[in-house]
Amino acid sequence: MFGFEVSGMDTSAAAGDDFFRYAVGKWVDRTEIPADRSSVGSFVMIAEKTSARIREIIEDSTKSRGPEGSEARKIGDYFASFMDDARIEQLGAAPLKPELERIAAIRTRKDLSAVLGGQIRADVDVLNATNYYTDRILGLWVAEDLIDTTKYRAYLMQGGLGMPDREYYLGASPRYGELRTKYQAHVARMLALAGFTEPEARAARVMALEVAIAKVHVSVDETSDVPKGNTVWRGDELARKAPGLDWEAFLTAAGMADQPRFGAWQAGAIAGISKLAGAQPLQTWKDYLAFHTVERAAGYLPKAFIDESFAFNGQALSGTPQQRERWKRGVDATSGALGEAIGKLYVERHFPPQAKAQAQEMADNVLKAFALRLDRVEWMSAETKVQAKRKLANFHVMVGYPDKWRDYSGLSVVAGDAYGNWQRAGLFEYRRNVAKLGQPVDRGEWFMTPQTVNALFAPSQNSVTFPAAILAPTFFDPNADAAVNYGAVGGVLGHEVSHGFDDIGALFDLNGNMKNWWTLDDMAHFKAEAKKLADQYSAYEPLPGLHINGQQTSSENIADVAGLATAYDAYRLSLKGAPAPVIEGFTADQRVFLGWAQNYRSKFRNAALRRQIVTDVHANAPYRALTVRNLDAWYAAFEVKPGQKLYLTPDQRVKIW
Question: Which of 62, 203, 214, 238 has CA atoms 20 to 30 A from the CA of 548?
Fold first, then answer.
């Protein structure tokens, strides 16, 4: 086996008519979506294997216990407490009591603002595309100041919805109407489980408030508009710019009363939410806060709460028929709380130095290939090209794991206190982020743990992060054919690098400062090509009547085209002039493109597919596999001819880089 699963191909389909089917069709036919998943694919399969590995690490920590206060003891105690369902059942809803009592004690707008501020957490991140969504009324993102990346800035962002996006509240389709009815019933059931009287009336008030919040939210498209999002408000302007909240009480409770300035990422939404805080009845807000307190904590409460939460969030929203096993949820919870402590052990066991060295060599070749592509670009002016090459030379690719591990000595983990451990972990991470404000910027900070199956471009760092866990089969295998590796993980590497040179990357200079370094003509050409690609993707219809939003997914689609083209060139560089081998009848070019397609083999439940199309900035995976139709080399590799369904004339192929 050379790294590509030949048995998964369906060669009865012509590559030029349906490349996804040709490359992975039999895999799709024989693969069942696990009952505890809303989808299955390469990312999910690697994540499942990673989860099993983490379980071994955690269970070893549980058995060894380790000295009091050690990371091993904390890992073991956190997981064991989560898994102690008998203890959790015994405690019932009692762990919620202190927080619910604080909510019940709200008497004034100042009290409300203090409770809202005390609940804020560092759980959203737009530029790094890891999370656009929080159910807390506002989210916090602490990152480099976009204008001066030697400083940190606190960014406030829209939040407050229990369903994934404003469209779920405002959309006219019967599907959204059905979900709204189910959501309101879910709110009532959760409140009833927690012992509240009149749960239906409370749920109706919660639903009405969330609809009002949804109406002031901005769309995913607007959220990705960096210049518009880069709105700065002074601390003393908040009451005037966003009246309604008692900002002094809010920020004092949030531990940010001394901050002189804030980023207001979705300024209109923040102002709208603040207005609602000042106008909606206090009882409505108390019902809302009580529900979300119960909802967020459901995974750490008795089975009745877990089952009800899953019935809506898993089954209704995503179509997932079965709850994930408790140990899998425990692994996720423990990894979320003590991510780098587990990551340190993960790389010791599963990411040998030679794998890191080989992945780093691939990254170096991808950077070289992108530099050569810049040289060959005809549409870009010499002025812009100089700046592009300077930026590329300043790129930082972080492979596997951070140079400096996070310190968890300040996190208290108490055996038998699953709910308290979760609360303290969230507060610990929040305070770690807030503590960065006013401090020198750490350019080597990782925004993903080593065991995360993903990759990341951070525009303000001008860095690409490749965690150890994604550097695993089928994306990367040190023993596999280089062509498949370059098509798979090399394509992802190229994707992330190219983000530094797309419509968002153009806004950030070589030091990550927000400073457009493109000429007007160059940007006009880029946008024209981007529009062609957006139109190409908007023509795809994954569900009847529901098309991919080519504009919403534009940056990621551009990165796919550029990333795969760069990976193809990088593979050729890696040969150093030697002939490319033919393996099992497949040419090297074919293996590069098949490696790319294997990345995106997947199946989705319809509810999950709809959710992804509405909320995600990435196109649905099977359509990402079709990126190939923009590369000339793919046509030659598979003898794609005019008249075939995926054929594009040379002038229709998008070739930005």
Answer: 214
